Amino acid sequence: QVQLVESGGGLVQPGGSLRLSCAASGIIFSIDTMGWYRQAPGKQRELVATITTGGSTNYADSVKGRFTISRDNAKNTVYLQMNSLKPEDTAVYYCNVRVVAYHADYWGQGTQVTVSS
Questions:
Q1: CB-based contact 31:24 (threshold 8 Å)
Q2: Which residues of the chain fall short of a pLDDT of 50?
Q3: Rounded Cα–Cα distance for residues 50 and 113 (Å)
Q4: What pLDDT is stored for residue 93 in this prediction?
Q5: 77 with 71: CB under 8 angstroms?
Q6: What is the pLDDT of residue 102?
Q7: CA dist 106 to 1, 32, 66, Å?
Q8: What pLDDT sits at residue 57?
């Protein structure tokens, strides 16, 4: 079965960095767009960044210049490098994998990122 496993979350001070990883398994066909979303308490889930198979990226304005999304297609893994973290970045971060051949979106379990002094 399809499984997405996230890792890399934790507690970090403002200005610090974290690197999130999301590894997908059980997918036979090529993964299309991969992305990261986040949800803070009392807030809607919002898009953080996406990356296409060809490497085209999109970022939320709030993270541009600080976050970098990347992927390793051979490993079916997507990463999110988060630098210059702010308290406003505190949220549960979710990995998303879209597989058009399956007509499906898959989600990771979520990983908590807390930015606090």
A1: yes
A2: none
A3: 18
A4: 98
A5: yes
A6: 85
A7: 11, 11, 26
A8: 98
Instruction: Identify which of 61, 60, 85 has the alpha carbon closest to the alpha carbon of residue 9.
Output: 85
Single-letter amino acid code for the residue at 103: H
d(CA 14, CA 76): 30
Alpha-carbon distances of 40 from 60, 97, 103, 110, rounded to whole Å: 15, 21, 28, 12
Please tell me the predicted confidence (pLDDT) of residue 28.
73
d(CA 84, CA 90): 12
What gap in Å lies between CA 82 and CA 11, rounded to an integer? 13
In this prediction, residue 15 carries a pLDDT of 98
Q: Which residues of 13-51 are buried (b: 16+ CB within 10 A; e: fewer)?
A: eeeeebebbbbbeebeeebebbbbbbeeeeeeeeebbbb
Count other Cβ atoms within 10 Å, centred on residue 87.
11
